[in-house]
Amino acid sequence: xxxxxxxxxxxxxxxxxxxxxxxxxxxxxxxxxxxxxxxxxxxxxxxxxxxxxxxxxxxxxxxxxxxxxxxxxxxxxxxxxxxxxxxxxxxxxxxxxxxxxxxxxxxxxxxxxxxxxxxxxxxxxxxxxxxxxxxxxxxxxxxxxxxxxxxxxxxxxxxxxxxxxxxxxxxxxxxxxxxxxxxxxxxxxxxxxxxxxxxxxxxxxxxxxxxxxxxxxxxxxxxxxxxxxxxxxxxxxxxxxxxxxxxxxxxxxxxxxxxxxxxxxxxxxxxxxxxxxxxxxxxxxxxxxxxxxxxxxxxxxxxxxxxxxxxxxxxxxxxxxxxxxxxxxxxxxxxxxxxxxxxx
Length: 344
Hints:
Largest sheet: 7 strands, antiparallel
CATH superfamily of the largest domain: Nucleotide-binding domain of ferredoxin-NADP reductase (FNR) module
Helix content: 10-25%
CATH topology of the largest domain: Rossmann fold
Strand order of the largest sheet: 8-7-11-5-6-10-9
Number of helices: 8
Distance between the termini: 45 Å
């Protein structure tokens, strides 16, 4: 199976190795509940650890349909090659290695949202997370002993102090499904607990001045149309902050943030400040169940609002839609709205 590492994209085929078997998952990309970005990021590598950390027995039952062959012992994928010692000036994050950090601080943002600050042994290391990328977080449940892994997008990293911030919406037992395992575990963890990180992951990166790469392909946009629901706001904040930090970056951003009510709007003060201080930013909140005194947009984000704020999609307009929503919010609803709007 010398070809494993050569199958890392839609064009070449998306192959992964799991438990010494090789699978062609190209046809499964559009069906993956977590989106295709994570699968594309794992293409051409041994994804055994991440697969069993992130998936249930039901997912394992799907594998035989995509089986190709056994992985030859003489042909190990790139992430199985022995690692060289990390250089002193290398970034802290490693895509192929779990790195330990300490749960340093927890701040209550709302009744069900926390700001967690994680601290790493920095020694002047950059954190190493490009704008638009995210990380895997791994934490052991002290009751069940289960190792839980979930993807998160940090909203800030401070290299001078070796700290990184995560905004996490807590799904309590009464409404927790699979997405609540990590959130309740980290919420109950004591300060000083060890947490593990790995990354960067994701197929999108913003490199500045309207320039991006998507699955390695360069593209350009004059305006981002950002659509988020719930904690899906965190990747948008990451990009907004990057643009705001560069006075020469003129990329425009329209953010449509969908939530149930005003209390569910995450990082509102920060978003309002970014909009106020950057003339090319516009932020619209659309609570579906606002209070009587709410003066802004209301109702579920739909095609009508998109047409009112953006107009009809124009070929060659150099606009890019970014969409991020949580699994608890009906993960395909906003995607369907965007697709219908783009089809006119």
